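Below is a filled-in request sheet from our internal design queue. Each sheet records the structural input a requester submitted and the sequence that came back. We keep these sheets so that new team members can see what a complete request looks like end to end.

REQUESTER: design group, bay 2
PRIORITY: normal
MODE: inverse folding
CHAIN LENGTH: 161
BACKBONE (tokenized):
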């Protein structure tokens, strides 16, 4: 029988682009784990994606995962756009690579290991876990320690993709 894990995640960026961070809470029964990291130069959407990716990648076995986020970009991307992107070899209608391709490839790989239900909440409306994740993400953005290699090195303009 698969374990039920509840995940809450949020991303933050001080300036966009700017220093950023994510905060993710994983909850299994009475156990809770907090994941966070701060990046020197990134975007808000990348941090929203990173929070979910790192949460899912930290799970050691297949689980039923209920993910609560405030990012329409992530929710729409994963529930509506990703199948089309994959069919079109990750290109937009203008034949350009989608933004944040490195992260969409990671999330696309990791979601296949789990049974996921996605929940969206409006940001800054008092949802307890979303507010906690927002605070954690902002704190990490204020003290970055990691380089967002793909973003900082213009990964998307590299012809050797």
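RETURNED SEQUENCE:
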């Amino acid at each position: 029988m698969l374990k039920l894990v509840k995940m809450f995640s949020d991303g933050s960026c001080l300036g966009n682009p700017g220093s950023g961070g994510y905060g993710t809470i994983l909850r299994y029964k009475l156990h809770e784990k907090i994941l966070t990291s701060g990046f020197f130069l990134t975007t808000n959407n990348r941090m929203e994606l990173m929070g979910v990716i790192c949460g899912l990648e930290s799970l050691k076995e297949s689980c039923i995962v209920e993910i609560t986020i405030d990012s329409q970009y992530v929710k729409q991307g994963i529930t509506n756009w990703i199948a089309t992107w994959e069919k079109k070899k990750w290109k937009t209608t203008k034949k350009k690579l989608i933004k944040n391709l490195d992260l969409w490839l990671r999330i696309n790989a990791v979601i296949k290991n789990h049974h996921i239900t996605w929940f969206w909440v409006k940001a800054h409306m008092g949802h307890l876990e979303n507010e906690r994740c927002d605070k954690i993400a902002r704190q990490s953005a204020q003290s970055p320690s990691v380089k967002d290699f793909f973003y900082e090195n213009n990964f998307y303009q590299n012809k050797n993709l």
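SHEET NOTES:
- The longest strand covers residues 3-15.
- Residues 72-87 form the longest helix (16 residues).
FILED BY: M.R.
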